[in-house]
Amino acid sequence: MRAALFYGRRDLRLADVPEPEPGAGELKLRVRYNGICGSDLLEYYDGPVTTRNTPHPLTGVTNPVIMGHELCGEVVAVGAGVEDIAPGTLVAVEPVETCGECLYCGLGQYNHCPKLAIQGYNRAGGLAEYTVVKRRMAHPLPAGVTALQGALIEPLAIAWHTVNRCAVSAGQLVAIHGAGPIGAGAFLTLKSRGVQAVVVDPSPARRAALTRLGARVVLDPTACDVVAAIRDLTGGRGAHASIDAAGGAKAFAAMLHGTRVDGTAVVVAIHHEPVMIAPFDLLMPEVHLTGVALSVNAFPAVIAEMARGSYPLEGWVETIPFDGVIEQGIERLRRQQGMKIVVDVAGSCGPPH
Ligand SMILES: [Zn+2]
Ligand SMILES: [Zn+2]
After folding, report:
1. Which of 11, 12, 74, 235 gives 20 to 30 Å between its CA and that of 329?
2. Do the Cβ atoms of 119 and 67 come closer than 8 Å?
3. Which ligand lies nearest to the CA atom of residue 180 in the structure?
4. pTM higher than 0.90, yes or no?
């Protein structure tokens, strides 16, 4: 089968590899779509970051590894002991394998499992014609949710967890710094909950995409004082919560300073450099500064929200063929072109065999 293998920095190879077969408790999927994520760019240009050149403690996987962790596939075979899911079922994959034995796994905070392995980095991922996942990683999609929508569930689950971290309710206001896929997903999630949003991004294309998705207040941080604008919109108080989905010192500072007293500031973006925080900026406004680690227990809720129509894909999600994963995917995203780029794995690999 065809697969995209990560060997090391700037070394992703399309190659033919043997098809995997499901072990006990596992499913074999024919991958339909796999999205490309900011963390894939980090791995490609600056890695190894999440992949390993020594065996992963849970999976034993080492580079080269098949990349891809935002995937939707169709079950084509089930391993021993799997009785509650049948071939033909379309599933979104929650790309984490956990130990199931530690304190955090026991508490249901499996996203903090110290042995956590991420599919696409620490076990073979979705940029391949076929992949194998543990049964508990697979979330069946209801009728009416398409395979392309299914590939968006993972990044939307991160956005969902980010919005939960904001701890806001209907009628309140959240400032979203960064209108990439996570910012867009956070916006749509807030909208579905009746929470207002101010979206901030320097890219005209991204601002236009968010406007088309229904954002009423969209700000260009290169053209205005974002913090002053957010305060103007909130009677001088600032947003109830703010999200840094951009990365970079300016967005981080705007997040912190645009949040009201006792509000919440949530970091979800990958930062390439450390940021400075003046402790005074935390102690006087008593802002709650936090972050998100992947997502936890979010997939079923996000799938249900997708089925309700809360996540239109028009205008911000595009598909590319498997052959284009580097040039049309990773390299374009690096140039800030496109928003969510999803590889049409099955479409470009031909009919199943
Ligand atoms: Zn991702
Ligand atoms: Zn664990």
Report:
1. 74
2. no
3. 1
4. yes
75-101: per-residue pLDDT in tens? 999 999 999 999 999 999 999 999 999
Give the ligand with the smallest distance to the CA of 117: 2
Q: Which two tokens stand for residue 14?
A: 């399309």
Distance of CA 38 from the midpoint of ligand 1 (Å): 6
**Residue 353: pLDDT over 60:** no
Question: What pLDDT, in 10s, does the model give residues 251-302?
Answer: 999 999 999 999 999 999 999 899 999 999 999 999 999 999 999 999 999 9
Strand segments, DSSP code E, in the chain are 2-8, 11-16, 26-35, 65-66, 70-78, 90-93, 96-97, 117-118, 130-134, 138-140, 173-177, 196-200, 217-219, 239-244, 259-267, 288-291, 317-321, 340-344
Distance 102 CA to ligand 2 centre (A): 4
CA of 350 to the centre of ligand 1 (A): 25
Which residues lie near ion ligand 2 (Cβ < 5 Å)?
A: 98-99, 102, 105, 113
Least distant ligand from the CA of 113: 2
Rounded to the nearest angstrom, the distance between the alpha carbon of 234 and the centre of ligand 1 is 33
Are 286 and 260 in contact by the 8 Å Cβ rule? The answer is no
Task: Report the 10 Å Cβ neighbour count for 337.
Answer: 12
* Residues 166, 353: Cα–Cα separation, whole Å: 46
* Three-class SS state of 295: coil
CB-based contact 93:138 (threshold 8 Å) = yes
Query: What's the rounded mean pLDDT across residues 111-128?
Result: 98
Question: Measured between alpha carbons, how far is 23 from 21 in angstroms, rounded to an integer?
Answer: 7
Could you tell me the distance, in angstroms and rounded to a whole number, from the CA of residue 101 to the centre of ligand 2?
A: 5
Q: Which ligand is nearest to the CA of 108?
A: 2
